[in-house]
Amino acid sequence: MELLEQKILNEGRVLSESVIKVDSFLNHQIDPVLMQQIGEEFSDRFANKGVTKIITLESSGIAPAQMTGLSLGVPAIFARKRKSLTLIDHLYSASVHSFTKNETNEISVSKDYISSDDTVLILDDFLANGQAVLGLMDIVEQAGASLAGVGIVIEKGFQDGGKILREQGIRVESLASIESLVDGKVTFTKEEAS
Ligand code: 5GP
């Protein structure tokens, strides 16, 4: 997705050979116009798949998930990383090791919002080693729901997540795919993964 790649090139800050910071439009401040286009793009790519729910992980997945939900006309659910006073039981839960924070969180979704009648689209901001998506897939499976596929805003193709998921036959759509972050420079994979 051209606009997204331009944003990454212009505003992304390469922090190391494996991490890029995109706080100016995705992970802290949010660019609503870009999010709207991201939502439309995911909606086009997963049209006719019978998606009934979108599921993501708080907090950075929420903006793209909400805009995709708006385009597809379905609700967006965000898995919570901490239990709260209002979210204690009647939950599906899974363990997710965070790549950026190097900590393991238990993520939870209320059983009220996902059921065996649902066809779920998983969305996230980044795909690195695939732990977040695998945790969300675990929850989809516990609910007995079907998986339509996985939509990722920025995939880092030099890490294993994309390979692990595609080897399982899962459809993974990334709107930008980074091949390398070597020498502080972002290089995109020539053909976007599909
Ligand atoms: P994974 O679970 O695939 O290993 O990592 C994906 C999660 O880690 C995403 O939800 C995202 O929050 C975070 N993440 C992974 N790599 C990066 C990165 O290079 N930059 C930022 N900002 N977040 C990342």
Automatic annotation (TrEMBL):
Enzyme class of the recorded protein, top EC level: transferase
Location(s), subcellular: Cytoplasm
Binding site for xanthine: N27, K156
Binding site for 5-phospho-alpha-D-ribose 1-diphosphate: A128, N129, G130, Q131, A132
Catalytic activity: XMP + diphosphate = xanthine + 5-phospho-alpha-D-ribose 1-diphosphate
Family the entry assigns: Belongs to the purine/pyrimidine phosphoribosyltransferase family. Xpt subfamily.
Pathway terms, separated by semicolons: Purine metabolism; XMP biosynthesis via salvage pathway; XMP from xanthine: step 1/1
Gene that produces this protein: xpt
Protein purpose: Converts the preformed base xanthine, a product of nucleic acid breakdown, to xanthosine 5'-monophosphate (XMP), so it can be reused for RNA or DNA synthesis.
Principal cellular location given in the protein's record: cytoplasm
Any coiled-coil regions, as ranges: none
Protein known as: Xanthine phosphoribosyltransferase
Keywords: Cytoplasm, Glycosyltransferase, Purine salvage, Transferase
UniProt cross-references to InterPro entries, sorted A to Z: PRTase-like, PRTase_dom, Pur/Pyrimidine_PRTase, Xanthine_PRibTrfase
Entry's EC annotation: 2.4.2.22
MF (Gene Ontology): xanthine phosphoribosyltransferase activity
Quaternary context: Homodimer.
HAMAP family, A to Z: XPRTase
Domain of life: Bacteria
